[in-house]
Amino acid sequence: MRARLLSATIAAALCVGTTGAQESAPDTPSARTLSRWLVVFNAPDREGRQVFFQERWAYRPNQTFYEELREQTGGFELLRVEESTSTRTIAIAKHVDSDAVARITFEIEPAEPYRIVRFAAQTIPRPADLPIARLSETELVAMLRASLDRWTAADRFAGAVLVARHGTPIFTAAYGLADRERRVVNTIETRFKNGSMNKMFTAAATMMLVRAGKLELAAPVGKYLTDYPNTNVAANVTIHQLLTHTGGTGDIFGPEFSARRLYLRTPGDYVTLFGKRDLLFEPGSQWMYSNYGFALLGAIIERASGQTYYDYVHDRVFMPAGMTSTGSEPEDQVLPNTAIGYMKRDGRWQPNTSTLPYRGMSAGGGYTTVGDLARFATALTSHRLFNAQDTDLLTTGKVPSGGGKYAYGFVDTMIGGVRAFGHSGGAPGQSGDLIILPDSGYVVAVLSNMDPPAAPRVSNFVAARLPVR
Q1: I want to staple 377 with a disulfide (CB 3.0 to 4.6 A). Which of 62, 302, 352, 443 is the partner?
Q2: CA angle in degrees (0–180, nearest 5) for 47-48-50
Q3: Portion of the chain with pLDDT greater than 70, in percent
Q4: pLDDT per position as a tens digit, 235-271
Q5: Which residues contact 60 (CB under 8 A, 6 or more apart)?
Q6: Residue 173 DSSP symbol
Q7: pLDDT category, 25, cuts 50, 70, 90?
Q8: Which letter does DSSP use for residue 221 in this model?
Q9: Distance between CA 292 and CA 363 in Å, rounded?
């Protein structure tokens, strides 16, 4: 009976949907092997996956990688087969737990037992002929609630979600635990670590100083940091390039950061540690995400404003926007109503305390609430922070950056043919995303105290289905 059930399941897996129609995949050895793998991979039986690896792989696969892949995706739903020969099948599949789409390549031996010699799964943009249907607000809220219940029950989401239109919430809810040991639940008011979402606030603070005539976008770093250790960086990297990740200034994470993370307390401390490094490429010649570039912006904000970075962003960004629960206080201070971040290691959740810096800074690592993110979005789109021209300058994409164009601390992209801008943030035990849809007035804010992609999985699910108005 079990063998017949498995055969029926494999046969069903070979039928793939294309724009609502059903067609049979080619009956080739490689396609049959792919379908068998999908059945095993998607099942909750971890032991069964291990047996399949041992029996059907021609080499010793990294089983930890596949378990992490299943954790991130929830499995794969086959959408269509692009190519299939006796030894190779290339197919398009959707993540079971999100709208993300991947191209899967399976290659097998030319003769029985047709063991697998190559597997690859690469995330790709969703094909235009496989659109996600837009829903009414009522339909979306019902589907979102059911999906969040499912993700929470599967321990794939814990956090808070807010969806609003023109400043009025249409959905707010919180899920999971802020403190797993003490069983403290998350609420809509819970503060979460926001990772790189701080870059939006840093860019806004920089634009405040540009508007005040204290900074120039085309001016080099050395005009403001006159004692900067590396003369090449000081003379050739501009504020514009720091804001757009085109300065070649590199990252901060690695052994040096890990060894000094508790001693890096000001933007100047980051300059002291990393300021002697040379550039990775000629400024302006390419895009490469640079946390250090935004650390430099923090130091520049301090020199230009005469205040600490933290005071300036609080006074000029958070308070005018009504963001009373956002900041970057040191990690040794106990903040009420703040979630503990949990990262999954060896199949178990553990606090991310050992990974955190002394405090969040201009490149990321602060904390906020979904309500404060929505207030920030409203302050931007209603031009309370900047006039229309400066808001457009801040949020309009300038350089290609993978999934869209990078603006000044914002990613400007298209979701289902609709323009959106915002920024995500992710690190071990923390995941956040803000999506602003300026044409329809919708805002989606999601924060989670779990590993990425917990928040973007939710925010993109919502943004792709919201009505277009």
Answers
A1: 443
A2: 65
A3: 95
A4: 999 999 999 999 999 999 999 999 999 999 999 999 9
A5: none
A6: E
A7: low
A8: G
A9: 7
To which residue do tokens 């992710």 refer? Answer: 426
Rounded Cα gap, residues 370 and 444, in angstroms: 9
Buried b (16+ CB within 10 A) or exposed e, 65-80: ebeebbebbbbbbbbb
**Residues carrying CATH 3.10.450, the chain:** 2-124
pTM of the shown model: 0.90
Q: Domain 2-124 classified CATH 1.10.287?
A: no
Rounded to the nearest 5 percent, the helix, strand and coil shares of the chain are: 35, 25, 40
DSSP-derived 3-state class of residue 383: coil
Closest CA to 210 of 123, 128, 297: 297
- Please give the CATH topology (third level) of the domain spanning 139-463: Beta-lactamase (3.40.710)
Residue type, 210: V
β-strand partners of 93: 78, 102
**Helix intervals (H) in 261-409:** 267-274, 291-305, 309-313, 319-321, 370-381, 388-395
379: how many CB neighbours lie within 10 A of its CB? 21
DSSP result, 52-71: HHHHHBSS---HHHHHHHHH
**How many other CB atoms are found less than 10 A from the CB of residue 259?**
10
The pair of three-digit structure tokens given for residue 204, joined into one six-digit string: 């806004």
Element housing 435 (H / E): strand 430-437
Residue 386 identity (one-letter amino acid): F
